[in-house]
Amino acid sequence: MGYSGFRVIKEGLFGQKGWKPVWRDPEPKAHYDAVIIGGGGHGLATAFYLAKEHGLTNIAVLEKGYIGGGNVGRNTTIVRANYFLPGNSEFYSHSLKMWEGMEQELNYNVMHSQRGLINLFHSDGQRDAFARRGNAMINQGDDAILLDRDGVRAHLPYLDFDNGRFPIYGGLYHPRGGSARHDAVAWGYARGADQRGVDIIQNCEVTGIDIEGGVVKGVQTTRGAIKAKKVGIVVAGRSGQVAAMAGMRLPIESHVLQAFVSEGLKPVIDHVVSFGMGHFYISQSDKGGLVFGGDLDFYASYAARGNLPMKEHVMDAAMTLMPMIGKAKVLRSWGGIMDMTPDGSPIIDKTATEGLFIDCGWCYGGFKAVPASGFSFAHLMATGRHHDAAAKFRLDRFRTGVGLLDEEGTGSQHNLH
After folding, report:
1. Angle at 138 between CA 136 and CA 144, to 5 degrees
2. CA torsion angle for 415, 120, 370, 140 (degrees, to 10)?
3. Is the pLDDT of residue 200 over 70?
4. What is the distance between the alpha carbons of residues 198 and 205, in angstroms, rounded to a whole number?
């Protein structure tokens, strides 16, 4: 079923009786050409592009819960391409371009809003670092504007500019950045994949991966054995656990990242704003709630909930940046399980097992990467070759030390040592 203004009007006039389920609920088949473990944004996008770009339709997406119940529905919905290092910069630039055409490609409203993103800086050193990042973004072909104090004030007059400890010096403005509706992205890709013949199988947990003679043969699930020529692991914070079923130990730790939303308020925050002296970020949703988050909880966990000290830390940062937020009531909080790599950058690669592929390690950046991750992973699974945009996301960089992508710039620059 296609969506259009005409269809909305027609269904409104005739009692909304013509709508059909957005995707099927099939029984798993005994054999598929490819199985995707994980029905989040990345897994669904992979299945969609395997079908759309490579003509593979005998595909199953296996999700242990329900579509949209994992990290794709547990994030702060930010979309951006303000990365610095070669390898990441071109990938996220590619992803943002895909975001800009996603709604037309899927015929689905994912509420992509390019409202602009502003990263604040609070010292001369931070200004220099953001100026360098902005130049790298422009060289990549993306947009970046360095704002002084008055420039930030023109966009964000409600901030505390004269905080004695963290005065605002300026900001790096990324006009094409913004946000999207997280669950709509999952639903849009699920619908698009289903339309092309992909089986989306919910409540189907993978309990084992069958390997014979170094070749993957299929998976064991709570709904029976499924044979497959190719298997892709795309399970975010559960990557280490699922990879262990294939005898792999990944260079990943899983940590909780909390997020929060306030009660609905009148429009007040037009942009996505990131605080430079604390990992705090905030935007306002279409419902009026202020959506915000902060640092990881900094202990390994598979619990989709967080702890009170980190809640306090995030609220401290919010009050420091914009004291007015103290009048808003927090409506709810949640946690996503982040698959953190040592260098802060993802992995899209083949494994030592023939036919077994891995897409993981997205750290904080999973949501914004959904379209390019799915596109690149589908290209790898279908052709056996890395897509140019994801060519540096190799698994063996952690074994050799060559090609490490320290995106946060907190470690040594390996190419200089």
Report:
1. 100
2. -50
3. yes
4. 18
Number of neighbouring beta carbons within 10 Å of residue 204: 22
Contact between 329 and 263 under an 8 Å Cβ cutoff? The reply is: yes
Which CATH number is 268's domain given?
Answer: 3.30.9.10
Cβ(34)–Cβ(230) below 8 Å:
yes
pLDDT tens-digit series, residues 366-403: 999 999 999 999 999 999 999 999 999 999 999 888 88
Taking residues 174-189, what's their average pLDDT? 97
User: Does 105 reside within a domain?
Assistant: no
Residue 34 CA to residue 90 CA, distance in Å, equals: 28
Exposure pattern of 277-308 as b/e (b: 16+ CB <10 Å)? Answer: bbbbbbbbbeeebbbbbbbbbeeebeebebbe
Q: What residues contact residue 130 under an 8 Å CB cut-off, 6+ apart? A: 119, 121, 146, 170, 171, 172
Q: Are 265 and 231 in the same domain?
A: no
| Total number of domains constituting the chain | 2
Q: Which residue has tokens 């992909």?
A: 198
Beta-strand relationship, 356-360 and 224-233: parallel
Can you tell me the mean pLDDT for 359-368? 94
Examine the domain organization and report whether 407 and 263 are in the same domain.
Answer: no
Alpha carbon distance 17, 27 (integer Å): 26
Looking at 293, 321, 340, the residue that finishes a domain is 340
Contact between residue 213 and residue 198 where contact means Cβ atoms under 8 Å apart: no
